[in-house]
Amino acid sequence: MSIIIAKNVYKEYGNQIALKDFSISVRKGKIFSLLGPNGAGKTTFVKSLLHLVNIKSGSIELNGLKVNNPNSRIGVGYLPERFSFFPYYTVEGVLEFYGKIKNISKIQIGENIEKSLDLINISSLAKKKISTLSKGQKQRLGIACLIMGENQLYILDEPFSGLDPIGIKELKDLIIKLRNEEGKTVFINSHILSEVEKISDDVGFINKGVCLTSGEMKEIIGSSSLE
Ligand code: ADP
Question: Which of 27, 76, 211, 226 lies 20 to 30 Å from 151, alpha-carbon distance?
């Protein structure tokens, strides 16, 4: 069963074509990576999927609903390429904020904050202000915010950028855990094949807005379609 189905999507910014006849489908409970160079159209696809921008033609369904239906975004967590927040908030203050907008009860928020900080290994940063965090630490906080709520689908735009090797390893482990132990779907945008090759079930290759090929990672890598 597919959680995302995009068919023949076109998107332009003025004269600039960002997505051209773009089609993919993402299986529920799997890790899907959309791979392509900078400027290929990956972020535009994610923004179209979340209805943050309007497409010119084609169709996109999320959770079985057209993306112009706000209910399509229930249970969807999105981490943009650069996570930012008001600099004077503390790490736990940001997590509390996310808990509140997810309508989580006060007691549950406290528990979830502890769990999220622990899972992402940033408990020591709880009282720190956002303005004092490194890019990698902010990225980890962004992930912690996502797991504050009960999401079924995690959309991560270039999640490894800015992370040190340990951070990359921990995030990969977390992504695998979300799939294996909790049956979640994870959609990753990346421009580095080696970052996602081992953890992805499925992959789509995009260049200049066109999806060149998509399917199971192990079948596509090593096949002649990219040679
Ligand atoms: P990627 O995420 O793969 O790096 P993007 O989706 O950000 O690619 O960009 C795809 C193309 O659309 C690029 O040529 C980019 O310059 C262009 N683009 C993206 N956002 C805008 C915008 N807001 N206005 C005009 N052009 C844009």
Answer: 211
